[in-house]
Amino acid sequence: MTFNQPRLWVLLAAFAAAPAFAQNVAVVNGTPIPKSRADALVGQLVKQGQQDSPQLQQAVRDELINREILMQEAVREGIPSHPDVKAQIAVAQQTVVLRALIEDFVKKHAPSDAEVKARYDELVKQAAGNELHLHHILVENEQQAKDLIAKIKGGASFEDLAKQYSKDPGSAKNGGDLDWSNPKAYVPEFAQAAEHLKKGQMTDAPVHTQFGWHIIRLDDTRAIAPPPLDQVKPQIVQQMQQEKLQAFEQNLRAQAKIQ
């Protein structure tokens, strides 16, 4: 019984040490590399699109071992004590903590489905109105625009003249076709003139904008059809989260004593 006692102590010591080894992925020169550090790095890589696998786990382990070896050498040379290095470490530490704070805030203050629906309805209401299907010809001077208007009234093809004379590279090749668009997408002078036209009507006088002189024809109008909620929900949620985060930061700053 006495003869076997040392072996018993060895077994007990091994069992006692097992949980400690399970907490680490490696021990380098007596310094443990905790498994939590490896899990954090694997998590970052998975978020970036890599697939979690035994190969990735091993690559992360090797990377952390290399880092620890280099870190130990840096400590021996006193690198962490350099003022500029200490300042950079402080900034990096602050960045990590603040990122975690923001992620936690966003998670705890996610907008409800009802809030998202209310914002969507508000945006739809703001965007209500008609969109226009227009053709236009853009030229450099008023007289040329007047001459082209006279030709069109005389029976010339609007589209042919647009291809020949228009300075708008985006629409000229298509006969001046601007396709369907919200009037708010145009400069005010252009939008105002277009909205006063009736279907099939052309401006009697050239319209001057910062781009030159326009001849505008309204082909058709239709009510603006908003995109379905499911299509724009991610953008709405992101916008609302940013607004809540901005309000949170402003509130903290208002309460802070800044000298």
Indicate the topology.
Blueprint: H1 5-22, E1 24-28, E2 31-34, H2 35-47, H3 54-76, H4 83-108, H5 113-127, E3 130-139, H6 142-153, H7 158-165, E4 177-181, H8 188-195, E5 207-209, E6 212-223, H9 229-255
Antiparallel strand pairs: 1-2, 3-4, 3-6, 5-6
Structure notes:
This protein is α+β, with helices and mostly antiparallel strands and 259 residues long. The chain has helices at 5-22, 35-47, 54-76, 83-108, 113-127, 142-153, 158-165, 188-195, 229-255, and strands spanning 24-28, 31-34, 130-139, 177-181, 207-209, 212-223. α2 crosses α3. The longest helix is centred in the C-terminal third of the chain and has 27 residues, at 229-255. The termini are far apart.
